[in-house]
């Protein structure tokens, strides 16, 4: 295992520590699911996911950023779950259409997530129109 990363809590600024959720033991995580938790727990309950080696999953975000990222993922996933394109093609679309955004939604802020949602909505309209006209976009 590599050394856990030093993270600051996005809500209160306190350090976050690498932990394991003993309640979430599974075959994939026999010693518990890894995460970072705020050292001010229980006053601050902010957590952030991690990989087994201690690498954080994306960039820790505030409550608003996490909500915006979840919404952005819901919309973005529609690009490839609609079966118009593959998941890889959807990420290629993201890099081509919005090259100034981070390559992963987990690193985006609220404004970037809103920009992604607007672009996805516009693309889904294009895809739907093309589908009804009988041609692939």
Reading the helices and strands in chain order gives: EEEEHHH
Whole-number average pLDDT? 88
User: Helical residue percent?
Assistant: 25-40%
Poorly predicted tracts of residues: none
SS class: alpha+beta
**Strand count, sense and closure of the main sheet?**
4 strands, antiparallel
This entry's quaternary arrangement is single chain
For the termini, the CA-CA separation is 45 Å
Number of helices: 3
Cα-atom radius of gyration: 18 Å
Shape: elongated
Number of strands: 4
Q: Which band does the percent of strand residues land in? A: 5-15%
Strand order of the largest sheet: 1-2-3-4
Description:
By secondary structure, this protein is of the alpha+beta class. It has 3 helices and 4 strands, in the order ββββααα. A 4-stranded antiparallel sheet has the order 1-2-3-4, with no helix packed on it. Helix 1 packs parallel to helix 3. The protein is elongated, with a radius of gyration of 18 Å.
């Amino acid at each position: 295992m590599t050394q856990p990363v030093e993270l600051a809590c996005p809500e209160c600024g306190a350090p976050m520590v690498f932990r394991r959720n003993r309640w979430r033991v599974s075959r994939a995580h026999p010693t518990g699911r890894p995460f970072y938790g705020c050292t001010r727990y229980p006053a601050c309950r902010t957590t952030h996911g991690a990989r087994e080696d201690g690498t954080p999953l994306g960039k820790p975000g505030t409550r608003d950023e996490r909500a915006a990222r979840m919404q952005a993922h819901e919309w973005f996933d529609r690009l490839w779950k609609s079966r118009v394109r593959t998941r890889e093609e959807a990420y290629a679309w993201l890099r081509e259409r919005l090259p100034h955004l981070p390559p992963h939604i987990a690193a985006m802020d609220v404004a970037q997530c809103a920009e992604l949602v607007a672009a996805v909505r516009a693309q889904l309209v294009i895809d739907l129109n093309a589908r009804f006209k009988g041609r692939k976009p």
